Inverse folding.
């Protein structure tokens, strides 16, 4: 079955960087666009970035200019490089795939930005 496993979260100081990973299995990775979302405390889950099967990338809101999404089709992994983080980036980060019309999510990885 479809499985997504995020990793790489943790405590990071303001202005620092972090790279999140999402290992995918159970579907043909190269056939699907992949997405990163996040959910901050008390807020709705928001879409941050998308990478297509052709490696085109799209960003929304606060991810623009600071975050970079990438994928490794051999490792079946999607990444989110986060730079210049600030306390507003504190959230649980999820990767997502829409497979056969249904959303699949990992359990998420917590990123805390604090000094």
């Amino acid at each position: 079955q479809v499985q997504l496993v995020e990793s790489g979260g943790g405590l990071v100081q303001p202005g620092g960087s972090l790279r999140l990973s999402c290992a995918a299995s159970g579907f043909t990775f190269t056939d699907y666009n992949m997405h990163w979302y996040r959910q901050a405390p008390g807020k709705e889950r928001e879409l941050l970035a998308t990478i297509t099967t052709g490696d085109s990338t799209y960003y929304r809101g606060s991810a623009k200019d600071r975050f970079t999404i990438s994928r490794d089709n051999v490792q079946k992994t999607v990444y989110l490089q986060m730079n210049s983080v600030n306390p507003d980036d504190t959230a649980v980060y999820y990767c997502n795939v829409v497979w056969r019309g249904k959303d699949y999510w990992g359990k998420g990885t917590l990123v805390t930005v604090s000094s």
User: Anything to note?
Assistant: The chain has no helices and eleven strands.
